[in-house]
Design goal:
75% strand
Length: 106
């Protein structure tokens, strides 16, 4: 009985690659003002997806090699600010306080 080779071995190219890459980015913000104080919040999400397939044939190596790789990276960030601007007579009072946080998951 004759041994059958992979269909990929019958193709003319020794090395074949295929890849898909997608990046989604979303950002939101909101501001609330009340008299002399205001609050602002910002949110962001990034989603990065990669799918990659590679094939290396038997022309340069004894055994063929194939790879299928999926990578997804999700990251987020948030910023929050409270600011105040108040005038009392000839004096002006202003201030800003903020907070930032971020994270990533692979």
């Amino acid at each position: 009985m004759k041994e059958l080779k992979s269909n990929m071995d019958n193709l003319s190219s020794e090395e074949r690659k295929w890849a898909v890459e997608n990046t989604d980015m979303w950002n939101w913000y909101a501001t609330i003002k009340e008299y002399w104080i205001s609050f602002r919040t910002e949110w962001g999400i990034n989603n990065h997806y990669i799918r990659e397939r590679k094939y290396f044939g038997t022309i340069t190596a004894e055994d063929a090699f194939a790879m299928d790789r999926n990578v997804t990276v999700n990251s987020w960030n948030t910023n929050n600010f409270i600011s105040l601007n108040k005038s009392i007579g000839v004096h002006k009072l202003s201030g800003l306080i903020g907070q930032q946080a971020s994270g990533q998951q692979e």
